């Protein structure tokens, strides 16, 4: 199996994409480091993995920048190496720009962008010393296209592409790969956990998310892309074509996004 005995660290592993990546990797014999803020949910995910999986739980808030270096040192010492970091922890948004408090923009950017940067900066020296490794970044179609009610989320995802494209160029000769995965709609609780303009929880499952790709299917496709060391890949249904429309017909996409209207229950 491709991932047999590979040490893989997944942030945001207590639900959604991170959870299902954990299941898929455990089935392939990977050694896992699972992180999020919720120890109870991490334990649930660990218990749901194959019984002989070698799993270390590291309770970690990626916005607690001061705690990250020690967490990385302890996790690497536990397994003796780190093959892959999957930067997955994140949060979404459901609010108009005019209704979004600046503190909410800041929180989303801190979690989605700076949290991944902080994890990467802590892990990078380890990978450089080893002389191998891979950093995987979970972005979004909204890292390429902006739409209403997602301004801060889209901004945080756009920022990831700039940072990790730059990092990829810097370490091209170091045998360390950067893979950016761009999901479309995946059936997770992302819209339920999204932040409204005042910072409160959205608590609504958006229709497009409910109809999205099965997260187990997404995980399998993502692992194939990681194994092939793809620089960037989109995984989703027809919504991913919006990226191509923006590239080749930007005026048309702009016209279409201006026409988007969401019913309150779908935001």
Overview of the structural elements:
The protein has 267 residues and is of the alpha/beta class. 44% of the residues lie in helices and 14% in strands. It has a seven-stranded parallel β-sheet, with helices on both faces. The model is unreliable at 263-267 (pLDDT under 50).
Summarize the structure.
The chain is built from nine helices and seven strands. By secondary structure, it is α/β, with parallel strands linked by helices.
What's the structural blueprint in terms of helices and strands?
Elements: E1 7-11, H1 16-27, E2 31-36, H2 39-48, E3 55-59, H3 68-79, E4 84-87, H4 102-130, E5 133-138, H5 151-170, E6 176-183, H6 207-210, H7 215-227, E7 232-235, H8 241-248, H9 250-258
Parallel strand pairs: 1-2, 1-4, 2-3, 4-5, 5-6, 6-7
Query: What percent of residues are in strands?
Result: 5-15%
Q: What is the CATH homologous superfamily assignment?
A: NAD(P)-binding Rossmann-like Domain
List the domain count as a whole number: 1
Radius of gyration equals 18 Å
Helix content: 40-55%
Largest sheet: 7 strands, parallel
Shape: globular
Distance between the termini: 41 Å
Oligomer: single chain
| Distinct helical segment count | 9
At CATH level 2, the architecture is 3-Layer(aba) Sandwich
Number of strands: 7
Order of helices and strands: EHEHEHEHEHEHHEHH
Key phrases:
single chain, 267 residues, alpha/beta, Rossmann fold, seven-stranded parallel β-sheet, 7 strands, 44% helix, 14% strand, globular
């Amino acid at each position: 199996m491709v991932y047999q005995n590979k040490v893989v660290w997944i942030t945001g592993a207590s639900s959604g994409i991170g959870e299902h990546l954990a299941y898929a990797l455990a089935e392939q014999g990977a050694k896992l480091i699972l992180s999020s803020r919720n120890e109870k949910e991490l334990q649930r995910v660990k218990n749901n993995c194959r019984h002989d999986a070698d799993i270390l739980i590291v309770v970690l808030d990626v916005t607690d920048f001061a705690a990250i270096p020690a967490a990385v040192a302890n996790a690497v010492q536990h397994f003796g190496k780190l093959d892959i970091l999957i930067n997955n922890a994140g949060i979404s948004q459901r609010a108009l720009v005019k209704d979004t408090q600046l503190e909410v923009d800041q929180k989303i950017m801190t979690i989605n962008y700076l949290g991944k940067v902080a994890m990467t900066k802590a892990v990078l020296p380890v990978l450089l010393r080893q002389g191998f490794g891979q950093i995987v970044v979970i972005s979004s179609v909204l890292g390429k296209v902006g739409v209403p009610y997602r301004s801060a989320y889209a901004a945080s995802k756009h920022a990831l592409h700039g940072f990790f494209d730059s990092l990829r160029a810097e370490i091209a000769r170091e045998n360390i790969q950067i893979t950016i995965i761009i999901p479309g709609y995946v059936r997770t609780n992302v819209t339920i956990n999204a932040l409204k303009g005042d910072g409160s929880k959205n608590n609504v499952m958006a229709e497009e998310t409910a109809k999205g790709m099965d997260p187990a299917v997404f995980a399998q496709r993502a692992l194939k892309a990681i194994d092939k060391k793809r620089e960037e890949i989109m995984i989703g249904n027809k919504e991913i074509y919006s990226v191509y429309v923006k590239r080749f017909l930007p005026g048309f996409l702009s016209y279409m996004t201006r026409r988007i209207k969401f019913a309150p229950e779908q935001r």
